[in-house]
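Predict the holo structure. Ligand: zinc ion.
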Amino acid sequence: MTPESSLDPANPFAHASDLPYGLPPFGAIREEHYLPAFRAGAAAQRAEVAAIVADDRPVSVATVLDPLEASGALLNRVASVFFNLVGSSMTDGLREIESEANPLLAAHRDAIVMDAGLFAKVTELYAQRAELPEGESRRLLERHYDDMVRAGAALPAEGQERLREINQELSRLAATFREDLRADTNELAVHLDEEARLEGLPADAVASARAAAHERGLRGYLLTLILPTGQPALATLKDRTVRQGLYVASISRGRRDNAYDTRPTLTRIVALRAEKAGLLGFANHAAYVVADQTAKTVDSVMQLLTGLVGPAVENARQEQAELTERLHADGFEGELQPWDWAYYAERVAQERFARDSAGLRPYFELNSVLREGIFAAANGLYGLNFVPRKDLQGYEEGVDVYEAFDESGAGVGLVLTDWYARDAKRGGAWMSSFVDQSRLLGHAPVIVINLNLNRPPAGSPTLLTLDELSTAFHEFGHVLHGLLSDVRYPRLSGTSVPRDFVEFPSQVNEMWAWQPELLRRFAVHHETGEPLPEAALDSVISAQSYGQGFLTVEMLAASLLDQAWHQRGPADPEITPEQVNTFERQVLASYGLDLDAVPPRYGSTYYEHIFGGGYSAGYYSYLWSEVLDADTVEWFLGAGGLTRESGEKFRRELLSRGGSVDVMAALERVLGRPPRLEPLLERRGLLPA
Ligand SMILES: [Zn+2]
């Protein structure tokens, strides 16, 4: 009896889903199904790997790589559902399961990547790699070999033992960080009794605040917090004390002396990562992470980041001077505070670009943006069509399922859309998958897109801010990367590219939010059906270049903070929880990024990307891939904008290839030359005047 068959056949994870595209049967899945499936799935994969090791035929793609890629099917089925729901629909039950499943999975992954017999097989095949034809299999072999070495497969036994302990503890700590942050974020939502204090906030945001209060059994209004430091309401709330309260709540997350203090967790994470890097022969965690990226070295990362600081700060100071004048004109004295910035920046933008963000929102209704904007762009570029599948069920009420078809009418995959914020959902916006595309396994992709929009009261439309509009296009860029994947191996599918490249396709996709021909189509008043007036359209487009000083500084500050935490070596003295705030201030000051009015995009204590997610030492990726993005945007525009021909080239060379090719070489094939830095400098206003 194989371990997989030891799972109760009534458990919905016991067999492949028979729904279209292997969509998980959400309605049949109950919480008691997870742990048995995790255990059986891990045992089954260990047995599959043991069979590869025991195979006495000569090593080859067919005897090592293919069966390795095909292993773990049961585990993948349960893990993909479980971790998607942990992010989008957390419950107390899932939380308990997660605390058991995480260490189990960390130990399982270690058992596979440190399996001596498997490593011997992979190493033997790796030694013959020059004989393999160039292409996906050779690339996969290099990937597996590197993964195993980086995971400690070549270490002596005692090193491996310590690594296993570290991985176990790190996996527990990341879950603790996420959970404490989620709880503190909920607790710090700002509660207000009187509507008068919300003056300036658009009517539907007021309605959402009322609904949020009601949902928690409170009277009045509740301003809930989103993940980054900046909160959308800061741009419109007129009452300066309310703005201050909201801002202080945002930056207080995780650094209060309460049960949700994340400082002990994050300092422990930093120390363990440094120790692990040392064990694996790297100077620090950042060096370990970056070695595997397109950036390759910490030096090249620091060169990009520090090179942008001077011009960005200069830019931000000019913006600050202008905003401070507005503050004083309003009768306030003294310095512009961080809770004033967005408010006055919004007013400058309104005057200079005749842009009224709140006034624009009725033109950006979610369904119109989706059908006539996001889907239309994917159709114009890649020939995709999206059809609602009302017969298929998502994991929550309000999660819709779409089927994507190509031009020939062939089904490509499924896309689930989960737009709204819930207390049980983590902050931010992201794409993820339930099934990764793979020709080896015969799998077409099942992708999910998550945003955190405020749910409007029943019967009202969902109206987007410009930020949310841009985020929706961004996340859909990730969706396309997963959806258009056309590779053999799941390990190389879709978004399985170096992390400092993974934001590239999504950042490029943002460009279509600001394309006049598309804007005219989707920016239509939700009540009158009138298109966005041409003057407003121009201002929306030109206003995109305003405020880049602030945005670049907050990104640089967050990126350098991430690097500073992760460039600490194993021999450096540990930072104590009490020293977190001081450490943060010192790092920012050392780069001249200590502008009081421009806080980092994330403070350490609520920096989920690096302490709760997979972006440690990798937050630089956003700026790194923006260099490539800005250049690619110029390429698209130079080639006639939204055309099927450009889209096809981009799809063929890049989106469809996932990690099966050298992504930088693929990009050069699209551009016809190496990428340049100038388009980014120009976009962010960093070129000398
Ligand atoms: Zn992204």
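The CA atoms of residues 174 and 611 lie 6 Å apart. The longest strand covers residues 411-420.
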